[in-house]
Amino acid sequence: MEDPARRISNLVRMSQPHKLSPDLPLTRLYQNLINIYDQAEAYASENKCERAFSLYLRFVATVTEELPKHMNYNGINADHKNDLCRRTIRAINEAEKMKRELLKLFTLESQDYLATQIDMDEKHKAKPPESPNSVSLRLQIGSKTYTTCDVMSNSSFLFQRIVIPNDLAENFVTHTTDNFKFGLLYGKLLRRVIVATHIITTKTDEASLANMKKIINDPASLSGEVTELILIGCVCSSFEDSAIERFIGASLLNEIVCVMVKPTEKKCSIIHLIKTPDDAASTSQQTSKLTSLSEAATCENLHITPSMSCTMGTS
Questions:
Q1: Nearest to 63 by CA among 109, 39, 29, 97
Q2: What is the CATH number of domain 4-123?
């Protein structure tokens, strides 16, 4: 489904006025314009916003752009001219109002479409076979123990559906420098889906890492765009980065999505980590070090879906 803003742009483009015949009398042109305006009003009263919006735009563009080009425009009836001016002002106001309503409607339709596609995936797409390179991990970070989501498959995930941007890798590589190779991943809750929408990158020097907790608790202090977002996890260039350990230790998340983007390859490895209950930790399992994350393959559970796009921000 097209982006809501693009759908509006397409409506505007399709509403461009037709060229007026110079042989058509002004009185006939005036009546044709009144018919367009009345039809727009009728569609608006029936709540057919797309058609009404398109006709209002065509009426305004014809009156302001095409009509003055008519060879006899200077001889137009004064009453007709004043009437067209009044209707044009009203048409502009109505079109602006409908544009806002249509944008809301198209956004909701886009969200519904995404949710429907996800439901269809769950019903018709079997879980892919586990990669032979994937391993189950248990990580001990301070007093917290995390494991990969496949181990906790019988548990109820908080992140029932996470949509990861399919341009995340390219954006992260393009917009980060050697000093900015770690990012905090934030998202928005849209219906039943968490969509990753923002990455805030931070330096990996000791001073920046020591400030990690402040960044986590107040992302808006670093980016004016980030408001009321959900912290999902982190993005890094290597799972051996000490920033991951600092991030996990500072966060209060029970579930964390770690995304590794290799600078030389615009590909993502996604690890979904779940905090294990104290009584779920098995003493027979050996706790893995963070460096072992590099051995893990991309999370293949259906609850993580690549899609959409992502906004980059830098501290």
A1: 29
A2: 1.20.58.80
CA dihedral (31, 32, 37, 42) in degrees, to 10, reads: 100
Locate 212 and state its tokens.
């990690």
- 233-251 average pLDDT score: 77
Numbered ranges of CATH 1.20.58.80 in the chain = 4-123
- Architecture (CATH level 2) of domain 138-314: 3-Layer(aba) Sandwich (3.40)
Query: When comparing pLDDT for 90 and 108, which is higher?
Result: 90
- Burial of residue 182 (number of CB atoms within 10 Å: 0-12, 13-18, 19+): buried
Report the alpha-carbon distance of residue 194 to residue 159 in Å, rounded. Answer: 7
Q: Per-residue pLDDT tens for 7-53?
A: 898 899 888 888 888 888 999 999 999 999 999 999 999 999 999 99
Burial group, residue 147, by CB count within 10 angstroms (0-12, 13-18, 19+): buried
Average confidence (pLDDT) over 145-170: 71
Q: In which element (H, E) is residue 256 found? A: strand 255-261
Neighbours of 204 (CB within 10 A): 18
- State pLDDT tens for residues 210-240: 777 777 766 655 555 545 678 888 888 776 6
> Strand, coil or helix: what is 184?
strand
Q: Which of 109, 110, 103 is nearest to 11 (CA)?
A: 103
CATH code 3.40.140 region(s) in the chain? 138-314
Which contiguous run of DSSP H or E holds residue 38?
A: helix 26-45
DSSP string, 202-218: E--SHHHHHTHHHHHH-
